[in-house]
Write a structure and sequence with these properties.
The protein has 361 residues and is α/β, with parallel strands linked by helices. The chain folds into two domains: 2-148 and 332-358, Quinone Oxidoreductase, Chain A, domain 1, CATH 3.90.180.10; 155-302, Rossmann fold. It has helices at residues 40-46, 100-103, 152-168, 187-198, 212-221, 234-241, 254-261, 286-295, 308-324, 326-331, 343-347; strands at residues 2-7, 12-17, 28-38, 60-61, 65-73, 85-88, 91-92, 116-118, 122-123, 130-134, 138-141, 179-183, 202-207, 225-228, 244-249, 264-272, 299-302, 333-338, 354-358. The strands form four sheets. Strands 3, 5, 6, 10, 11, 18 and 19 form a seven-stranded mixed β-sheet that branches. The protein has a six-stranded parallel β-sheet with strand order 14-13-12-15-16-17, sandwiched between helices. A three-stranded antiparallel β-sheet has the order 2-1-4, with no helix packed on it. α3 crosses α4 and α3 (152-168) packs across α9 (308-324). The structure holds beta-D-glucopyranose and zinc ion. Zinc ion is lined by residues 93-94, 96, 99, 101-102, 107, 110-112, 115.
């Protein structure tokens, strides 16, 4: 069957003929992949900076943001049925008996680093016609979310972050309304802004962008405020948005992040979700940051990947977002490319917010 794969050793990326998977355990289901979203991680993988093929393969089938339809189920499958629309999680547990996180199904907190990830690290991904998976890694999405459900996986990043935020803030009396700054207006940032709005935050999105007007429109329509980085310095942004209770970083650039840390308010939490490329050292006033973090009881938190229950929250919040702001949610998907043209959004800068590859109509 058709798949899109990267060959890291040969530095090639192209369509291939990949063996069709079969159900081999009674708790597995077979899915026909409908759509795969493309993110920064995929673009790094196809430029050979990241991405490891499974053992015994010289290639890795890419894609980890999926929407698919169940076409076959093993005899003990009870969570999904034929025709269900499902989203698959990304990370699979490491093999170490001592890894408490992985042994309890929380490989998003794997201690050893030996986890695998579909489409990223030692497991084939979803940019292919058929996939077999254990039912515990599947989440059912309602039919009415069909045209936007490919956004569920990037939304899980925000859901896991918000869950950790509420755990952390149980440490103190935390009022009812909070001010959050989202750094970046890519898909992770805009979906994060939506999740924060649904959770009741006042939201400011601070972004450097080629298309301010499109993003401004999305941000305004969800009741958040857009602040353009080209015309507002970090100091000016902090005056508009402050005191900042939460920063949700979704730019993957450390210099702006560390400028903004200095404006985090009392008892604030700074959440990092981006993975920056190495651009060399930058100058930061570390004494100032350290003093401020201590004197303000601040928390700097990193968050990666998401467990199944955060996929459930993402599906719920995507439904809420579609009721409140259907046009804004749809506007997050810039373009759809047939799988025969998948290399275009993967390897060239086609712009926009979320580009999607259609595997099956
Ligand atoms: C995915 C995560 C994954 C991370 C690191 C992200 O793009 O959304 O699920 O854990 O990359 O590989
Ligand atoms: Zn582990």
């Amino acid at each position: 069957m058709l798949a899109v794969a990267v060959f890291p050793a040969k530095r090639e990326v192209h369509a291939i003929d990949h063996p069709e998977p079969a159900i081999v355990s009674p708790t597995q289901a077979k899915m026909r992949v409908l759509e795969v979203g493309i993110c920064g991680t995929d673009r790094e993988i196809v430029s050979f900076q990241y991405g490891i093929p499974p053992e015994g393969f010289e290639y890795l089938v890419i894609g980890h943001e999926s929407l698919s339809e169940v076409v076959e189920v093993g005899p003990q499958v009870s969570k999904v049925k034929l025709g269900d629309l499902v989203i698959m999680t990304v990370r699979r547990p490491c093999g170490h008996a001592s890894c408490l996180a992985c042994r309890e199904g929380r490989q998003d907190y794997c201690y050893t680093g030996d986890y695998t990830e579909r489409g990223i690290k030692q497991q084939h991904g979803y940019m292919t016609e058929l996939v077999v998976e254990e039912e515990r890694y599947l989440s059912v999405v309602p039919r009415q979310l069909r045209d936007v459900a490919v956004l569920v996986e990037p939304l899980t990043i925000a859901e896991k972050s918000l869950e950790q935020l509420s755990c952390v803030q149980q440490r103190l009396p935390w009022g009812a309304t909070h001010r959050a700054v989202v750094l970046g207006a890519g898909p992770v940032g805009l979906l994060g802004a939506m999740a924060l709005r649904i959770a009741g935050f006042e939201v400011f999105v601070y972004s450097r962008s080629h298309s301010h007007s499109d993003k401004n429109e999305i941000v305004s329509s969800i009741g958040a405020q857009y602040i353009a980085a080209e015309t507002n310095s970090v100091d000016e942004m902090a005056k508009i948005a402050g005191p900042i209770d939460v920063v949700y970083e979704a730019v993957g650039a450390s210099s702006v992040a560390f400028d903004v840390i200095q404006h985090l308010g009392p008892n604030g939490v700074f959440i990092f979700t981006g993975v920056p490329g190495r651009k060399g050292p930058i100058e930061v006033d570390t004494d100032y940051i350290m003093k401020d973090v201590v004197l303000n009881n601040q928390v700097i938190l990193g968050s990666v990947n998401a467990p199944p229950h955060c996929f459930a929250s993402a599906i719920r919040d995507l439904g809420v977002a579609m009721e409140r702001w259907p046009a804004a949610v749809r506007a997050l998907i810039t373009a759809r490319y047939p799988i025969s043209q998948a290399l275009q959004p993967l390897t060239s800068d086609v712009g926009g917010i979320k580009n999607v590859v259609t595997v099956a109509p």
